[in-house]
Amino acid sequence: MVNSQFQAKKLRYFIQGLFLAFILQLIWRRRLYGEASSIIPSPEAYCPFGGLESLYSFITSGLFIRHIHLSNLVVFIALLTTVIIGKSFFCGWICPVGTLQEWVRKVGRFMDRLPAVLYLRRRLRKSALLKTLDRVAINFKYLLLVYILLETSRLGALIFRSWDPYPGLISLGELRWTTGVYILLVILNLSLVTERPFCRYACPLGALIGVLGRLSLIKVTRNADNCIQCGLCHHKCPMGVNVKDYQRIGSTECISCLNCLEICPKRALELRVPKVKIPISKYLYVALVMIIFLGMINGAKYFNYWSTSGRYGSGKNAVIPQDVHDEGYSWSEIRGRRDQGGYK
Ligand code: SF4
Ligand code: SF4
Q1: For the whole model, what pTM was predicted?
Q2: Pocket of ligand 2 (CB under 6 A)
């Protein structure tokens, strides 16, 4: 059992590392060959949130918002499909911002052994005020999601881009000190002391995945007959989900990391599809979701529904931006451009 736990955890770190390395090499190569390179796609072209942000514009006008390409939409659709099949696999296994936070927290765990930190953590854990604040703050990401979608649709511009830690990571790789870089650094510093702070409180994509994930087919399911209520699953959950209170883990906070499933001493947790008696092996689950995600992206490439170019718009409507503004737009610029008819 210990060996199987070790293997599954390793597999997750390996997959996280692969996706992070893919994005980092894109950032590095763009830096080497320059922004205007048509050979190296922008790492932003792989962000599924861009596909969601541009959805309204694409449906109503057939045009993507600036900085968004067909690839963003494809990755977003692939992501949605994985959510319907395998809940929040993207958050726990793929997202590079989630991976960075998780790995920084591992470094932070060394600090947890210091007596002063240990003492402080024990005190804070007991604080009722902190618990209440946490309960309120985890809802912020849902408000943020709604606000971003409404405002982006209304203004036709990526209002969250300047604040988003993912473009921040790209800017950091290019040694440009943008707001996103500072936000990313704040998040990584907080990650030293707490698990995935951005995922927990402020990730708008995570908010959507969490909500849609409630409909997901495959979920961690608890067999109450085997469960001895030891609470180890709760203790090991990076998102603080009280697994022993659920029959099927539909929590919007769950990132499908499978830590709980691995740690359970009674094998009371399994991956299951409702009404199907046989549980799904965690390796089959990973293989299935990965095949769907990568298969859809590569399928789109094969059938030529893929573009990561600097053009926005599609077909003969495509427009090459004349004044690419890498920092995003200030509020006055956004309003000014909207009043002049938007970006299209
Ligand atoms: S770790 Fe397993 S046995 Fe313990 S509370 Fe969780 S589900 Fe029940
Ligand atoms: S430990 Fe279990 S409940 Fe917690 S995030 Fe991972 S899969 Fe979800």
Answers
A1: 0.87
A2: 220, 236-239, 241, 243, 249, 254-260
